[in-house]
Each structure stands twice: as C-alpha cells, then as structure tokens.
Specification:
Layout (H helix, E strand, L loop, with lengths): L2 H14 L3 H25 L5 H18 L20 H25 L3 H40 L1
Helix pairs in contact: 1-2, 1-4, 2-3, 2-4, 3-5, 4-5
C-alpha cells in the first residue's frame, strides 16, 4: 500500500481515539510506520536524504521501544503493508503531520497517567516523536533547497 494512504489511515485511527490502551496501540502503529518509511528512504530514497532518513528510522524505533506495546490481536503491523513511498515530498508532509498527532496524543495520555511508568514512557515517546518530526522537517527543507537549486543549474 502507498505510504500516504497508510499515513492517512493511521491519522484517522489515532483521531478516533478510544481508551488509553487503544491510543497507545495507535501511537505504536504510527511509530512503526515512521520507522518503516525512514528505513525505505534510507535504502532507496534520494541520496541527499539518506542520512536523515536513517536518523528518522532510529528515532521512530526508539519511540516504539519505550512504549513496549505491540498491537494486541490486530494481526501484522500497519507498516507491514507498506509497498511504495510514492512522492517523497507528499509522504514526508503527511508523515510530519502524523508525528505531530502522535505527540499530541501522548501528551494527553501522559497528563492522565495514573502511574509514573506510563507517564515517563510517554515523555520519552514524546521526545522521540518530536525529534523524528524534526528529521522529517530537515528532509523537507533539503528537498526544497535541492528543487530551488535545479532551475539555477539549468539556467546557467
């Protein structure tokens, strides 16, 4: 499945909410998708984005690790359905939005947490999502700079 379609599906599932357990599962799904997209970009994306893409995959992986909450009885992770990235810019724009939604959901969960372990794992996952979103922004900036430089090279 196309990355943008999977991201849109994840954003809708996250927005649908539910209980804390459902939200944490959707956050886990979103982080797994971000990791898969980062890994794909690191292997087959534009060469000038590969370093940032590797960082994105690592940060999303950290976000998964601190949550330690694999989806319960939902079959394979949504990220396993990723077959193509499609347009890199569109993919990254949507992914940045998803990571922002993840951060917002985690803040809500952390504020309502009854125990310190949940609170602190949410805080760490918020940091990972925020840093991953920063990587996405860096990649979008690099894409824009590259596109801006192309017309100058062609004209010169």
């Amino acid at each position: 499945m196309d990355a943008v379609r999977l991201i849109v599906t994840s954003r809708r599932a996250l927005a649908a909410g539910g209980g804390v357990s459902d939200l944490l599962t959707e956050v886990w799904q979103a982080q797994a998708l971000a990791q898969a997209i980062g890994s794909r970009l690191a292997l087959a994306g534009p060469p000038h984005l590969r370093g940032e893409a590797t960082g994105l995959a690592d940060l999303a992986g950290h976000g998964i690790g601190v949550l330690d909450r694999a989806p319960m009885d939902s079959g394979e992770p949504r990220a396993a359905r990723l077959t193509e990235l499609g347009d890199t810019r569109a993919c990254l724009m949507h992914l940045g939005g998803l990571l922002g939604d993840v951060g917002i959901a985690l803040v809500g969960i952390a504020c309502a947490a009854d125990d310190e372990a949940t609170y602190w794992s949410c805080v760490e996952a918020i940091d990972a999502a925020d840093e991953a979103r920063d990587r996405v922004r860096d990649m979008l900036r690099k894409l824009a700079e590259r596109e801006a430089a192309l017309p100058r090279c062609e004209a010169g």
